[in-house]
Amino acid sequence: MIDAAYNIETIRKDFPILSREVNGKPLVYFDNAATSQTPQQVIDVIVDYYQRYNANIHRGVHTLSQEATDAYEEARIKIQRHFNIAKPHEVIFTSGTTHAINLVANGFSSFLKKGDEVLVSAMEHHSNIVPWQMLCDRTGAVLKVIPMNLEGELIMEEYHKLLSEKVKLVFCNHVSNALGTVNPIKEIIDAAHRAGAAVLVDGAQAAPHIKADMQALDADFYTVSAHKMCGPTGVGMLYGKKEWLQKLPPYQGGGEMIAEVTFEKTTYADLPHKFEAGTPNVCGGIAFGAALDYMNSIGFGAIAAYEHELLQYATEKLLEIEGLKIYGTAKEKTSVISFNIEGVHPYDIGTILDKLGIAVRTGHHCAQPIMDFYQIPGTVRASFSFYNTKQEIDGLVEGVKRAKTMLL
Ligand SMILES: *Cc1c(COP(=O)(O)O)cnc(C)c1O
């Protein structure tokens, strides 16, 4: 049961966008897995930054620059604490998960040779497939896939069989954005380490629901996008173990990432600045910290319990619709439901739902291999957040029924 202290009405009031209308209907926002909405507390931090202390950081002697630098570095510490990261300089600010993954994939070019193997899971986001394919093209390493079953769970026996001394890297998401599956990430990491491979965990879809502990998980890299957890777009985190970050070459050259530059030779700045070339998204970084404060003020335990109840309720109600099939029925799931109605294109359902003010995602969700696996063009995906309600889910179920009658 949901904690009585969980006050959904108060929480909803924090999100101004939730009181707007779409097509003359109250907005029902069920596209949280693509991006989450922003509470007033975070919007205030963004406005305050531009009204009071907008400046470039780490460079100026003046007060504004000092204040902006302090706030930005304070946000780094908030991120460090939230994910229980050992050292603040193991937190690299990036523009998001995609940037973080490319940074690592690029750096690994120098560590891989022909015949080495790289494992990715069958349920990755394109941003966790394409950079590795590019890496394998550059190095001659071979990309192999950890298969999944029809429920949308990784087949762990196959994973253990794939691990050998040839495998240098394993890439896996903590939670699948298309199916909501929570992967047994600790087992994946420990087994990879026993085989001598490094592990990058794509945490973009997990971070809004699960407070991951970096020291307990022991992943070598972990990536997060702030915009999926109440923060702004264009900012995120790459966590990397210090030993790896020291070994990896810089990704981009520019200002801020150097120690000394002459035309003959440049030496690089210490961590984290080595990977933070150019002027970063200062305001975004500060707002990312505020978003973590906001989510922690509600509490990840309360969020998980509430969202689980929404997931169960929606699963039950949707399955009452004849011809509706849910893709991704893993035992461990976050509040994501991917579904189709037999004989109807997902896009058409999404369009009708939009007319009713209900925002869902349709298509392949940047995970085409999953769609190929199920031999479907795409799905309708409804993803719930801690600010959604059962009444909204009732509206979704009614909307899907209506779409079905209109389209069949
Ligand atoms: C959203 C998402 C990404 C990409 O994140 P960006 O913020 O677009 O860089 C990668 N992996 C997963 C699992 C995601 O959900």
UniProtKB/TrEMBL annotation:
Enzyme nomenclature, EC number: 2.8.1.7
Reactions catalysed: (sulfur carrier)-H + L-cysteine = (sulfur carrier)-SH + L-alanine
An annotated Gene Ontology molecular function: pyridoxal phosphate binding
Enzyme class, UniProt record, top EC level: transferase
Gene Ontology BP annotations: cysteine metabolic process
Stretches assigned to the Aminotransferase class V domain: 28-396
Keywords: Pyridoxal phosphate, Transferase
Pfam families reported for this sequence: Aminotran_5 (PF00266)
Cofactor: pyridoxal 5'-phosphate
Signal peptide per UniProt: none
Similarity comment: family membership: Belongs to the class-V pyridoxal-phosphate-dependent aminotransferase family. Csd subfamily.
Primary role: Catalyzes the removal of elemental sulfur and selenium atoms from L-cysteine, L-cystine, L-selenocysteine, and L-selenocystine to produce L-alanine.
Record protein name field: Probable cysteine desulfurase
Species whose genome carries this gene: Flagellimonas lutaonensis
